[in-house]
Automatic annotation (TrEMBL):
<dbReference type="InterPro" id="IPR038770">
    <property type="entry name" value="Na+/solute_symporter_sf"/>
</dbReference>
<dbReference type="GO" id="GO:0005886">
    <property type="term" value="C:plasma membrane"/>
</dbReference>
<feature type="transmembrane region" description="Helical">
    <location>
        <begin position="131"/>
        <end position="153"/>
    </location>
</feature>
<feature type="transmembrane region" description="Helical">
    <location>
        <begin position="37"/>
        <end position="54"/>
    </location>
</feature>
<keyword id="KW-0812">Transmembrane</keyword>
<feature type="transmembrane region" description="Helical">
    <location>
        <begin position="281"/>
        <end position="301"/>
    </location>
</feature>
<feature type="transmembrane region" description="Helical">
    <location>
        <begin position="204"/>
        <end position="223"/>
    </location>
</feature>
<feature type="transmembrane region" description="Helical">
    <location>
        <begin position="66"/>
        <end position="87"/>
    </location>
</feature>
<dbReference type="InterPro" id="IPR016833">
    <property type="entry name" value="Put_Na-Bile_cotransptr"/>
</dbReference>
<feature type="transmembrane region" description="Helical">
    <location>
        <begin position="99"/>
        <end position="119"/>
    </location>
</feature>
<dbReference type="Pfam" id="PF13593">
    <property type="entry name" value="SBF_like"/>
</dbReference>
<keyword id="KW-1133">Transmembrane helix</keyword>
<protein>
    <submittedName>
        <fullName>Bile acid:sodium symporter</fullName>
    </submittedName>
</protein>
<keyword id="KW-0472">Membrane</keyword>
<feature type="transmembrane region" description="Helical">
    <location>
        <begin position="229"/>
        <end position="253"/>
    </location>
</feature>
Length: 332
């Protein structure tokens, strides 16, 4: 029997299990140091594989659609942070200050790649543009996210800290990514053949980061600081952000005259945030004891955006077959 689209996917269940394991059996002492080193290696491998999977041909096909990419990047790195700051007086009382720091961190993250492209394809959107736009968001996030963290998430010495963070991210994330992409002519076919196996490595790396982060957070008293009421409030905060992001991207796409296929791409690339980039970056940008609280909003938003966008993608897909590119079709 097929799983309902409203139920969590296997990866989300694995994330929940990992958080539970870290809550019951947190790594400490020498074990924690071992996991920290292993996590650094796993993050490097994760971004190496991302680089090896990135298709240059797909980027070339989609790169000419600059208006679409500019709008997606504006929504990702400007609209979201503005929403997080403007709504802070209203939404922060629903959660703890530490959790809202995680919400602001969520707001400055790049867009997700895999699910944005998958939903765009399901909804019959502009897939080449989605590949290009989501990939560009991830690459820019290496530079933009640390700067925005310094500007709106942290205080005191933020500027120097953010530049230091960029250096660490370039070393730990960008360097493996570039090496993987440069080696793509030789290993690209092998990566494609073993995509399902490498997905386990990909997701296993994130689970390892989550376990390490939550272990440190639990030892620092995470679950004593975060009540059930705060968790429910956090879900409300994230639902408001997602609803506003989806409504804004849809309105902007239509207001600026994009056709339906491009609208689909803008909605799914401009309203999503990357768990795959967010968790490793948090490991670099924040103190170990704070990472668990910071990534909790990212993890919840990840599942929320998957469930909502799955329904939305199917609604887009049900539009008339004659409306492959609705605006063009109507004016032809």
């Amino acid at each position: 029997m097929a799983r309902s689209r409203y139920l969590p996917d296997n990866f989300t269940l694995a994330l929940v299990t990992t958080v539970g394991l870290a809550s019951l059996l947190p790594a400490s002492g020498n074990t924690a140091h071992f996991f920290e080193r292993l996590t650094t290696v796993a993050i490097g491998l994760l971004f190496f594989l991302h680089g090896a999977k990135l298709s240059r041909d797909a980027i070339v096909k989609g790169i000419g659609h600059w208006r679409l990419h500019l709008l997606v990047l504006t929504c990702t790195f400007l609209l979201f942070p503005v929403l997080g700051l403007v709504l802070r007086p209203v939404l922060q009382p629903l959660v703890t200050p530490a959790l809202y720091t995680g919400v602001l961190y969520l707001c400055v993250l790049p867009a997700t790649v895999q699910s944005a492209i998958a939903f765009t394809s399901l909804a019959r959107g502009n897939v080449p543009a989605a590949i290009c736009s989501a990939s560009a968001s991830t690459l820019l996030g290496v530079f933009v996210t640390p700067l925005l963290v310094g500007l709106i998430v942290t205080t005191g010495g933020a500027s120097s800290a953010s530049f230091d963070a960029i250096g660490r991210i370039l070393l730990q994330l960008m360097a493996p990514f570039v090496v993987g992409h440069l080696l793509r002519p030789w290993i690209g076919a092998w990566v494609k053949r073993h995509a399902s196996t490498l997905t386990l490595v990909d997701r296993g790396s994130i689970l390892l980061v989550v376990y390490t982060a939550f272990s440190a957070a639990v030892i620092e008293g995470l679950w004593k600081q975060v009540s059930l009421t705060a968790l429910i409030g956090l879900c409300v905060v994230l639902a408001v952000l997602l609803a506003l992001a989806l409504a804004s991207t849809t309105w902007l796409a239509r207001r600026l005259g994009f056709n339906k296929a491009d609208e689909v791409t803008i909605v799914f690339c401009g309203s999503k945030k990357s768990l795959a980039s967010g968790v490793p970056m948090a490991h670099v940008l924040f103190a170990a004891s704070a990472v668990g609280t910071v990534v909790l909003p990212v993890m919840l938003f990840h599942q929320m955006q998957l469930m909502v966008c799955a329904v939305l993608a199917q609604r887009y897909a049900r539009r008339s077959v004659d409306e492959n590119l609705p605006v063009v079709a109507k004016t032809a």
